[in-house]
Amino acid sequence: MSADPNPHPTEPDVRPHVYDGIREFNNRLPNWWLFTLYATIVFWVGYWAYYEWFRVEPEGARSVELAMTRIDAAKLAATAAVNIDDKSLWAMSRNPVFVDAGRQTFEANCVACHLKSLRGKSESPTAIGPDLTDQIWIHGGDPTDLYRTVTQGVPAKGMPTWGPVLGPKRITEAVAYVLSHHKEGEPIVIDTSVSAPAK
Amino acid sequence: MSNQKITVEFNDKIVRQFLLATVVWAAVAMLVGVLIAAQLNFWQLNFNTSWLTWSRLRPLHTNAAIFAFVGNMMFAGIYYSTQRLVKARLASDFLSQFHFWGWQAIIVAAAVTLPFGLTRSKEYAELIWPINLMVVVVWVVFAVNFFWTLGRRNEPSLYVAIWFYIATIVTVAMLYIVNHLSIPTSFTHSYPVFGGVQDALVQWWYGHNAVAFFLTTPILGIMYYFLPKAAERPVYSYRLSVIHFWSLVFVYIWAGPHHLLNTALPNWLQTLGMTFSLMLWAPSWGGMLNGLLTLRGAWDKVRTDPVLKFFAAGVTFYGMATFEGPLLAIRSVNALAHYTDWIIAHVHIGTLGWNGFMAAGMIYWLLPRLWSKPLYSTALANLHFWIGLVGILLYASAMWTSGITQGVMLTAATDNGTVLAYPNFLDTLNAIRPMMLMRVIGGALYLTGWLLLAYNMVRTIRGARPVNGSIEVYAEPAGTETAGLSLLGSIFNPPVLFSVLAFAFACAWMFGGDFMKIAGIVGALFCIVAAYLHYESRGRQWAAWYDRLLVTAMPFTVLTLIAVIAGGLIQIIPTVVAQQASNVEDRRQIPYTPLELAGRDLYVSDGCYLCHSQMIRTLVPDVLRYGDYSRLGESIYDHPFQWGSKRNGPDLARVGGKYPNIWHLRHLQDPRSVSAGSNMPNFQWLLTDATDLAILPKKIAVMRTLGVPYPPMSDAMVLANARAQAAGIAEDLKAAGATVAPDKQVIALIAYLQGLGKFEPVQHKGPEQGSRLND
Amino acid sequence: MQNTSPFKPVRDQVTTIREDGSRRFLYPADAPGRFDRARRAAALALIAVYLLLPWVKVGGYPAVFLDVAHRRFHLLGLTLAAQDLWLLFFLISGLGFGLFFVTALLGRIWCGWACPQTVFLDHVFRRVERWIEGDAVKRQLLARAPWTPSKILRRAAKQAIYLLLAAAITHLFLAYFVSIPSVWAMMRDAPTKNWGAFVFIAAATGVIYFNFAWFREQLCIVICPYGRLQSALTDDHTLVIGYDWARGEPRGKPGSPGAGDCVACERCVSVCPTGIDIRQGLQLECIGCAACIDACDEVMARLGRKPGLVRYDSLAGLSGRPRRRIRPRMVVYGVLLVIGASVAGWSASGIRPAMLTATRMVGAPYYVDGGTVRNQFLVRLVNKRSEKVTLNLSVRGLPAAATVRGLEAPVEIAPMGEEVRPLIVQVPRAQSALAIVFEVVASDAAGSFRLSRAMEFLGPEAAPDSPNSHEPGPRSL
């Protein structure tokens, strides 16, 4: 297009210098743009004061520790037992609500190796998992031992780590179901012959 | 002014050389990019060859894009514009040629060494120490050539483009040297002097500012020259140039720790990294707006002129990338986005959109002028623009989608946030596999566009005669209308003094005790008010002072150096002093056994860190997935640190002991056999190549020099220890049904992997002293 | 025709930024006319769509319900899980291509007619302003007037309504992610109960209020990247709003000799919502709202001249050259759009109502157990429907001697639920060194769909030294 039809009413402020033909206006940028710069500086001051000076809220390691404490608490709450101790697990194993829920979890996840009867190798020599109804245990026979074995697994032997898959609630229920095949106070025999080397 | 005029002929030959190198290396960088993007989809594409494997080629891609492509482009643009802006020929033809051939030799050396696994493993600082020395020499030659030319200038006042070039040269030199300090163990291998958290901080101080001062400031300078030239419009605002130049160079340096948010990096550094990144938004957009509003007056030409099209889009992408940057630096956003493809989208908006398009605009503008012949085809240039734009669109939308999808899946939890929804990392990987294919298509389109430029260039140059620009200047430089400043005069001036004082008070406020805090905040406020009042009453003095500063290159350079050095000093010195193995809290790393050390060097050499982090962040999803968060002390002896920056695979900080040896063997041999759906390449050569044990005594000696507490061991003891451990692992593998000779690399690597996460508790839990810098 | 614009746009400066950097507020005059009517109709339709999408139910869920909390995304009856989120790519890139295509064809039609910024600003917030404060002249006078009670009342009423509108827009926006009933429930709860949502609403309301009450055209001029790319995407044959130079120049009063059709009434400037003079050609700020066309046509009609001095036309057309609608670019964009849409459609049709993934259990890749080798997997099943589904699982491609455990019973999955089942495969030692690839298959009882996943069976080397009874060794070194 040819000449500008609207000649400038006022020539804007131009710097006196010309560099290789390049001229520079001296226009203003919008003030709000400058305010965003000031606002971020003020934010820095406030953020630093909040976290580094007055330490109103924890951050980083302290905050994740708090969060994990909350999560552990939530896990404990979700296990239905207030504490995962032998006593409450035994109590749950006598409660049909827990035992029934545990049976469902067990039949969905555990019967592939331990069989529906829970008798594993005792029922069929080709089964993978050991008998869970007898009094011989490999990784400890107290209810908390069971809970630990299920949650952490025994990777060297093929017992998977169920903790991240099932979560604490379903694991406590499944343990209660297994315990419902046992009696509190019955003798426990630890079979060290097949036990994995101590960690 | 009755002076005689003489004609100065510019050295445009060097510009043509760098321009051709730019086009060639850019194509190489993009081609490697497309290949490695394809390898993420089709793991077979390494053809079981070590030097064609993703993790060896990825550093080649990044280094080629940054140093070969943008480097050459920057030198071409700087040399072309500087000569014209200062009305003088480059000071030395010899130094110019040395610069060009030296730089190309560095690139070739990098292209040869990186695929063979010779690397320092620090991102964009991978090159081995002999090449580092070459880089330093060539950079010094560049600096001498540049400043010598400034010294001989016939234009007293320095244009804004020159400011940015000066900032680039001094800052890159500073960053490069500090981050490459290392002690050699052989001609091709060295250990960096910093370890663990120190190394991480120094690396990202460097890495972030490589982006700032290698990919941004020189290109802004180039924008300030070529954009108004091409648009034939005055620059929109000089005052904006001043504000955004100084705020950009000062603030940028501080933002490095945003690459380490939520890690074991001390919190105060993370806070600085995040808040200064937010402060960067306005200065960055200042540059974008100055370019954009300069173009505004020639807006109707953007429709037809491919050069302006590329500049308009390039500046727009700069704006998008610098908006996204501060956003990603917010801790909570970063928690989701870090380690995912979102970051990949972000950096490619920058390189493809900003660097690539600014380069293309500059090249299309320069070609007719350097060869005195019209561009072969404007239509082809327009086609390049459209294909490139489509390529960026596909690439970026694929990576945004991928990053957000994976981020959401990795953090998703069920059962009241106590159980991960997708405990298996592969579930999240498989969800984004289609996106990886789309990115290949986007990248290939962009490469196609670039090849069109190359073709256009070849056709333009063919049969054309190279021409050199020239200018008439007075034989005796006229006395300047503005008197220059001495060094002292440049420092003892209201603007500088107010800034320095306010900054000193701000530091007192941040790091001082209670009294200092109050004094600091009062003092800083006082400085700001005083500066404001002074500016309101004596604003003219400030402007006059700056005009005088602009005619004195040396004081200007010194002030720039002061501005860029502050952030690094404040962040790095306390970290290097305070974060040492002797005073870590909580946990301390156990030094690696000799065999583990050998395995670690293989881990570095094969680029494992490019896909696997070793940093469990202080975030619940990370802790749920990978175990207890990583402590600062747990990698204190890691020279170089291996925290990583991207998780194409899961974190490995606590992988030691998680799987049996046989699992690792099978996994390295054929990852899919144990991890269905994995896209990790086969590392077959680890099973056939032997570990270099002979060098271990030397390496351990260097480690000891660096402060890693190895007990006194004779060379024979070192070797015996390594062999015994290797034999043990080979034995264990045999028991599990796999035969591997103990001298193979895979044995050493397994030893290292199984050793990851070993630490000892630190006993001294004394009173909280110096907790300011330790928490 | 009075000139309501107190400024004269120039090409060296931005109209809305004054010399001292402060903001120049614009008071665009009304420009009734056919484009105004059409644009208002389009805007009302779009607002209606925005309002209705979270309310109308398709297939049991709101038409658009992006349920981030449960990672289920309902789009017009299609339900996507997190694993299908990659389809989002087609949305983003399709939007991009669509904009490329439309811009090449019709210029910034998106900005002027469909962008939420323009739709809400011109047809909601400026309507409120017009209603409370009167036309452009009155609004300017009011702005300059001293703070009388009447002015305070008007201004307060306007801002209050703005705030309400901003809050309404935000609540509706939230409803896209949590559904209308949940938003309603949260609104009745104390803010502390849903603190995150409350903070979001408060912040978003603030941002939207600020944007529409104060920021306005600055967003288009300074922030929006698409606004800039448009000029690079248009060409000589793109339909843009332009001024017919040949016809209009030189400007002059009606009847003055040699004058063109432009009477320099500056109506086009006074109606412009971004403060430019369309007669200066294509500009960065122009959002293609067509107000200047309506304004100019009205003046031309009053003068008894032909309309279209300012009109929708290509730059070629405005300068009297032949127009070309179909250009190679259009074909390329069109083809790309069609390809993209086809791939998107094909991918979406591949979305099954359930999903199956299989991974190896954490631990050793295989276990040797007497004469057999054992591999352990976890099969994860996801139901994406809102009703229960029962899947039958099986395995194909294993040697006849293999034993498979864990998949015997059909798996019932709750609506939108996930289930995990172990899969244990045992293969006799003699066959275990073969490369066995098998498939896990799931299908629903009716056989309406089938899901499958290939897996690899692993075992020790063919010729072990000690064939029996070795478990993989301990992990300690």
Folded structure, characterized:
The complex is a heterotrimer of chains A (199), B (775) and C (477). Chain A has helices at 31-53, 60-78, 86-93, 96-109, 111-114, 120-123, 143-152, 163-179; strands spanning 136-137, 189-190. Chain A is mainly α. Chain A has a domain at 81-194: Orthogonal Bundle (Cytochrome Bc1 Complex, Chain D, domain 2), CATH 1.10.760. Chain B has helices spanning 13-41, 54-85, 93-113, 129-151, 160-179, 196-214, 217-231, 238-252, 267-279, 281-296, 299-302, 306-328, 331-337, 341-371, 378-411, 425-461, 487-491, 494-511, 514-549, 553-578, 594-605, 620-626, 661-669, 671-674, 696-705, 715-735, 745-755, 771-774; strands at residues 5-9, 182-184, 190-192, 413-414, 419-420, 470-474, 587-589, 759-761. The radius of gyration of chain B is 27 Å and the shape is globular. Chain C has 477 residues and is α+β, with helices and mostly antiparallel strands. Chain C folds into 2 domains: 1-144 and 216-351, no CATH class; 354-457, Immunoglobulin-like, CATH 2.60.40. Chain C has helices spanning 34-52, 88-106, 109-114, 116-133, 136-144, 149-178, 180-188, 195-215, 217-223, 225-233, 245-248, 267-271, 291-303, 315-318, 328-349, and strands at residues 57-58, 61-62, 64-67, 72-75, 78-81, 239-243, 310-314, 354-360, 367-369, 372-383, 389-396, 403-405, 411-413, 418-428, 436-444, 450-457. In chain C, the strands form 5 sheets. In chain C, strands 8, 9, 10, 12 and 14 form a 5-stranded antiparallel beta sheet that branches. Chain C has a 4-stranded antiparallel beta sheet with strand order 13-11-15-16, with no helix packed on it. Chain C has a 3-stranded antiparallel beta sheet with strand order 3-4-5. The longest helix of chain C has 30 residues, at 149-178. Chain C is elongated, with a radius of gyration of 33 Å. Chains B and C meet through helix 10, helix 11, helix 12, helix 15 and helix 16 of B and helix 2, helix 10, helix 15, strand 8 and strand 16 of C.
Rounded to an integer in angstroms, the radius of gyration calculated over CA atoms of chain A is 34 Å
Overall 3D geometry of chain A? elongated
Count of spatially separate domains of chain C: 2
**Count, helices of chain C:** 15
Major beta sheet summary of chain A = 2 strands, parallel
Whole-number mean pLDDT of chain A: 81
Model regions low in confidence, pLDDT < 50 over at least 5 residues of chain A: 1-9, 195-199
For the largest interface, the chains and their residue counts are: B-C, 77 and 65 residues
Walk across the major sheet of chain A and give the strand order.
Answer: 1-2
Helix content of chain A: 40-55%
How does the major sheet of chain C shape up? 5 strands, antiparallel
CA gyration radius of chain C, whole angstroms = 33 Å
> What class, by secondary structure content of chain A?
mainly alpha
Mean pLDDT of chain C: 86
Helix/strand/pairing category of chain C = alpha+beta
Task: Give the tally of β-strands of chain C.
Answer: 16
CATH class of the domain at 81-194 in chain A: Mainly Alpha
SS field, number of helical segments of chain A: 8
Element-by-element helix/strand order of chain A: HHHHHHEHHE
